[in-house]
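Need Cytochrome P450's 3D structure for a figure. Predict it.
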Amino acid sequence: MGTEASAAHTACTTAAACPAAAARAPVDHDPVDDPPSCPARHGNPGELRPEWAASTGHGPLTRVTLPSGDRAWLVTGYREVRALATDSRISADATHPNYPELVHVPEESPPDRRSAAQTRTFVQMDPPEQGAHRSLLVPHFGGRRIAALRPMVTATVDALLDRMLTAGPPVDLVAEFAAPLPARVLTELLGIADADRAFFAERLARGPSGIGALAPYLDRVLRDRADALPDRAGHDPGGRPHPQPHTGPGDEPAENILDTLAAHARTGTLTHRQALATAMMLLVAGHETTENTLAVGTPLLLAHPGRFAALRRDPEAMPAAVEEVLRHVSTADVLSRVATAPVEIAGVRIRAGEGVLLWLAAANRDGAAFPLPDTFDILRAGPRHLAFGHGFHLCLGNTLARLELGVAFAALATRVPTLRPAVPLDRVPAKPAPGLRGITELPVTWDAPTTGAPTAAPAGPQ
Ligand code: HEM
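Structure prediction for Cytochrome P450:
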């Protein structure tokens, strides 16, 4: 998912308290007398919150009250979430005054919307501006580029498992595996200098506080790399002709994302602040999402030992298992949007200026789209889940995330076949709302000694 604000997208409690929502005729007023508040506390992220059961039958759109007291539409239907995610009247512009904030900003410190506008990244923009900014990074996330990362991802997974197996059980799988894996992968993707990699990955694995602390470092690196490049006129920063005439970022993408961002900052496609904000956004978007999906997905797989074992024998089954984990975990719970023009959907009239919350996790449990939606079934066939969003903002890192998850689960199944949670999942602490759905730790154990050999390039999702 997207920016820091997006990371703050969170689940809303609605269903339990929610009376019938979708009236037959379009309604343009609150259809409920006592709209439930949002956000809610997260319960067990593996099982989702109990209000889910009560939400079925209340229609695909309901009203919720935000922490600010404002109202917003909460969209829970699979069909409706997909439709609104591709509707140009539904904006992701976080600087819109009615953008539904799921974190309450106290009166004394109103949001600085001008400053926010200057550091907005494409996850909070609308087409065509969003597409123009997104396209700068698209070459780094193409199929071939990501496939070329497989050996690095595999080696990283094996190194983490070597360390874990040497330490012996029990270990915290979040701290030892789920958090460091995406941290190290992002370090590579961004192109952090060799000497700084350990420091950078360690900070990143600490989560939001560690990521915040990386801003000054990235600021300096982007400036240094931009300064080393010629400007549009082919001059170096001292005004002298640069030894290599400038060709722009060019058709061939730079080796890594920081070089690409620095090149765009040098030529003025992006301001330095935008380049920095984009790098920071990628850390938020790419780290905790993957960590949470690994951390919550592992015990889901372990709860089905037969299937988990089958993954060892039949790597072909892995892509479907990864998709079911993504659907079930739906770590990026809710996406904030605002209507810029009236929209009529499912018998409801959304007025211009009203906030809209696309509840991905709910849509991924919509029984109309997924039979027995609460059942974790790695053999499930059916429509594409919405864990990566849909439409304009479909997750740019989805191929990379799928690669990481597939390699990680295959290695766990192969190298630690007796892996099991050391405590029941409902006893592991959920990450506090608001935020991405996840767990803060996962004590695991296994029958030592396990000396499983490294996973030498396991097959996994392509
Ligand atoms: C399991 C892991 C992941 C999940 C569940 C996930 C989920 C999402 C979701 C739901 C969105 C849509 C946000 C919106 O519409 O407002 C999104 C967007 C995005 N994600 Fe991911 N993501 C994951 C991993 C990654 C990774 C590894 C990266 C990159 C390193 C990444 C980069 C992005 C970017 C750049 C966007 C913004 C796309 C746009 O606005 O055009 N994500 N992600």
